[in-house]
Amino acid sequence: MGEHEGWPQPNGLLPNGLLPNVSASVIRDLDAERWSKAEERTAELIACIQPNQPSEERRNAVAEYVQQLISKCFPCQVFTFGSVPLKTYLPDGDIDLTAFSKDQSLKDTWASQVRDMLESEEKNEKAEFRVKEVQYIQEI
Question: What are the residue boundaries of the Poly(A) RNA polymerase mitochondrial-like central palm domain, all occurrences included (predicted)?
Answer without folding.
Answer: 43-138
